[in-house]
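Sequence in, structure out.
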Amino acid sequence: MSKHVTHWINGKPFEGTAERRGDIYDPAAGVVSGSVDFASSTEVDAAVAAAKAAFPGWRDTSLSKRTAILFRFRELVHRHRDELARLISAEHGKVVSDAAGEVARGLEVVEFACGIPHLLKGGFSENVSSRVDAYSILQPVGVCAGITPFNFPAMVPMWMFPVAIACGNTFVLKPSEKDPSASVRIAELWAEAGLPEGVFNVLHGDKAAVDGLLEHPDVKAVSFVGSTPIARYIYETAARNGKRVQALGGAKNHMVVLPDADLDLAADAAVSAGFGSAGERCMAISVVVAVDPVGDELLAKIKERVAKLRIGPGDNPESEMGPLVTRVHRDKVASYLDSGVAQGATLAVDGRETPVLGGGADGFWLGPTVLDHVTAEMDCYKDEIFGPVLTIARVGSYDEAMGLLSDNPYGNGTAIFTNDGGAARRFQNEVEVGMVGINVPIPVPMAYYSFGGWKASLFGDSHAHGMEGVHFYTRTKAVTARWLDPSHGGVNLGFPTNG
């Protein structure tokens, strides 16, 4: 039976009739598996109104009670992690083990948010003047919105709402319409944990729902993760409407391999970071920068590993990489194979020829692909492909490698593979990128640090989660107070008095 996914507003599923709906696909079979309601302005207004109404009570809920609910939510998500992983795999296409890892990384942010009593501590200075004390407090901003992509339907929302809710805000999540089920199941788990109605809401839909949130006067802050063009649009539109914004954009992540590197380690890293989740992640390694003379040997080791990867449906335990999320996206990614060759690259591994372990013939399949001898002028280098296409650029020196990274408009993540500590330290100091790995291919920070890039990979000042997340979802208030000693008898503020 085809499933139907609807909004979650004020603690329960939406009971109205949607004016528009979208299709949900099974990417492995290439067929429609269900439908999802698309929000109109009516549903946007209802979700924001529910969040606004719930805000005063949640803001004034004690930190200990907030923390208790967060702990219960954490345990419920952990208990249902396999169920969530299967929901994600069925709609996104990633293998279940990848989806389970996504849930686990999201839970790390929930665990970080469980420490909110400590994280919200302000400062205090006694006697800044005679019998005058000064202190600062962190207060929630109000109704917050999160707009999240298809590639991590559980993890990316969990970068946002646990911290926002822990800080005393209420939240409206607009997940991707391509894989909406996980967000509704998460809402159900919040309710089971005891979160009051209206504190967490889920709206499904397309640009109409997004614009409704960006323009709504009662939404005070907006978080976004997605492509750079949309991140720029989110930032400009929300900021123009007076909102606080953090908009994380696209990436073109380079992995520099120096001649002294362990090439087996580097090849393992390139394959796992390039093809995990079918390359549909903003932290995927999409460019291996081989500092010659290692290029030929490194390519040989990468090809050896790629040949052993098993491609198949996400629910097949033998599958190591699943399909892409939609047919349109698969076709766009595959187009870079032809354009790359036409522009001078060498097609070292053609993912269109990769055999599939079961799955429908109409599934959105594209196996791991390697384009060698890629240069900065090629479209396959310039564009964020967001699929299982690993490109290899060959350079003659460290300085030439750094030139590639410096000239690239993105600054999300990068890695260097070397056994030279001095080279690694120089790299981390010089590179204009927000997240750096040293012999680590996917340098996603732990939850108590913050996630985000530089340059065209971030619009706004704040990165996600960690202390930057706490600061994004709170406003600082400075208080200066004088309390008179009972024996003082009054205070003279220096004003003239009429006798």
